Amino acid sequence: MEAVPRMPMIWLDLKEAGEFAFNAAVKKSAVNVPRDFEGCSTLRKYFGQLHYLQSRIPMGAEQEAAVPIAWTEIFSGKTVTHEDIKYEQACILYNLGALHSMLGAMDKRVSEECAAGAFTYLRDHFPHSYSVDMSHQILNLNINLMLGQAQECLLEKSMLDNRKSFLVARISAQVVDYYKEACRALENSETASLLGKIQKDWKKLVQMKIYYFAAVAHLHMGKQAEEQQKFGERVIYFQSALDKLNEAIKLAKGQPETVQEALRFTMDVIGGKYNSAKKDNDFIYHEAVPALDTLQSVKGAPLVKALPVNPTDPAVTGPDIFAKLVPMAAHEASSLYSEEKAKLLRDVMAKIEAKNEVLDQFMDSMQLDPETVDNLDMYSHIPPILMEKCAALSVRPDTVKNLVQSMQVLSGVFTDVEASLKEIRDLLEEDEAQERKLQELLGKVPPPQGSPLPPSPGLAEVSKECSKYMEVHEKASFTNTELHKAMNLHIGNLRLLSGPLEQVRAALPSPALTEDDKQVLQNLKRILAKVQEMRDQRTSLEQQLREMIQKDDITTSLVTTDRSEMKKLFEEQLKKYDQIKVYLEQNLAAQENVLKALTDANVKYAAVRKALGEVEHKWNTTVQTLVASYEAYEDLMKKSQEGKDFYTDLEGKAAKLLEKARAACQAAEANRQQILEK
């Protein structure tokens, strides 16, 4: 896998700057940076100096020195203006992340962690109301995309370095986890409406990558099983890798050639591994192949992180050019309060993330998708692939007739050849019998019954050619029989596809659910909706908390507060977060009861799920069989024609040989009569 072609990466456009009453030279260098790492360095320096500036001069929203600042919003192209220096900082930080994503998508695939760090700092330290391209949902999406791509780069290096199979599997599994988070964000209706057309392109690529890297993870789990000589486990992991890769291939329609090359390369690797493993286990090891869900799931290993942004690091931003403007006491006190707010946010987020991890693992183990938990809609219509085949046959009404006629013609020629060869054989046997009688009349002792007499001189060549034709005929007869079996197998399906659509729909299996079964399904879907409601509420509360923290600026109060009263002021100010913390605690506490109810509902759903799974399997098998029959038609017609050509040629040769045999037998009989007369 170390030579697998690289998958493409997603990169983000940079925002364009509008009006800002600032020095023209500064503006030009900061908003029109070169698309390289030097440009990243320029943006970091400018961002740091803006941080120093806003801590001393009242340029924030509704402050005395605030000026209009305009930037273009990425998705709509509209100009968005705010009188707030933090807006300039936020846009510069966004461009820093976007530029790193652009560099990471090129050959310099080392920049995604920096991009994730920039977007994380932007999400955690700035308001999300400036513009929709810097909303909480979009920034979360960007962060997970960048972390996923960073982990993907690490996976490439791990495979090049031939790291241990289990480690590579865990790294690949973590790629899947990051992309799943990104996919959840892309599936959010609000995010989709913001992104527009690009949402579909990103979602298709991310979904394909989820299955692709899941396949890579199971490929390496299979390699680990191979190293541990667990040959049954090896088969099921390689089978799972093959299944997931096939899903990735289905989702890769329309993706660039680099993706197709990577998929073809990986299919060669996984397909070869699976075939070899299955053959070895079937004929050598004979180990039981366990079910995949009985094996321990592959836990991702997050070995990348969002690299932190520090706007006050002099090694990055250079010296503070505004150091002499104002005293730093108020700013230092504000920084201490910001740290208290950050500590509060970290504590709350630790609890949320712990509960979210439990919830995600639980839902992954359940494998319950609220949208497809019953999957009943699929049975109400003929799938597009079958509709396509039915439509194709509707304009070729003679398909079955042609196939039947081809079978009949082939059978006729086959029968003629067999009859000719039988007659030749009968003539040779009759000639041998007459020769034995002659030998007995002449007093000679013929060979024992069952031992052939040497053929008459004229029949020796006939006998030799007949044996040759018989051998060719017997070999071809097996192929002919198999061809007829295949034709008989597919003719019924082709007749079905050529008939009314109602018959096709009736031929597809469909579930027969009782009222109790339907009630079980409805109950399960209701609880799954509760789970989603709990998730949405948790996300909303988290966003509210972040927004409160972002807007919480007590600098004015700090200026008039004595240093000895600072701790008390902090405690009073932090009480404003108590109510939302209570709501979050209630939400987190409710999770245990919701999951217990879901567990009970899932137990009752097990029998229905099994029945639905069996029907779905039969449905898929039927669809695949009908499609295979359609696709086999041209091949059957071709082989039938080849068979007709072969037997027509053999018939001509057999007919000539029959005439030759008759003449030779007549000559031999005449010769025997002359001997008897003498």
What keyword list fits this structure?
20 helices, 72% helix, elongated, 3-stranded antiparallel β-sheet, 678 residues
Describe the protein's topology.
Elements: E1 17-20, H1 24-31, H2 37-54, E2 69-72, E3 79-82, H3 85-105, H4 112-125, H5 136-160, H6 165-187, H7 189-195, H8 197-227, H9 231-251, H10 257-285, H11 314-317, H12 329-366, H13 384-394, H14 399-441, H15 460-498, H16 501-507, H17 515-551, H18 555-559, H19 566-574, H20 578-677
Helix pairs in contact: 2-3, 3-4, 4-5, 5-6, 6-8, 7-8, 8-9, 9-10, 12-17, 12-20, 14-15, 14-20, 15-20, 17-20
Descriptive notes:
- Pfam families: ALIX_LYPXL_bnd, BRO1.
- One of its GO terms (cellular component) is endosome.
- Residues 414-444, 524-551 form a coiled coil.
- Residues 27-359 form the BRO1 domain.
- This protein has 678 residues and is mainly α.
- It has a domain at 1-111.
- Helix content is 72%, strand content 2%.
- It has helices at 24-31, 37-54, 85-105, 112-125, 136-160, 165-187, 189-195, 197-227, 231-251, 257-285, 314-317, 329-366, 384-394, 399-441, 460-498, 501-507, 515-551, 555-559, 566-574, 578-677, and strands at residues 17-20, 69-72, 79-82.
- Helix 3 (85-105) packs antiparallel against helix 4, helix 9 (231-251) packs antiparallel against helix 10 and helix 12 runs antiparallel to helix 17.
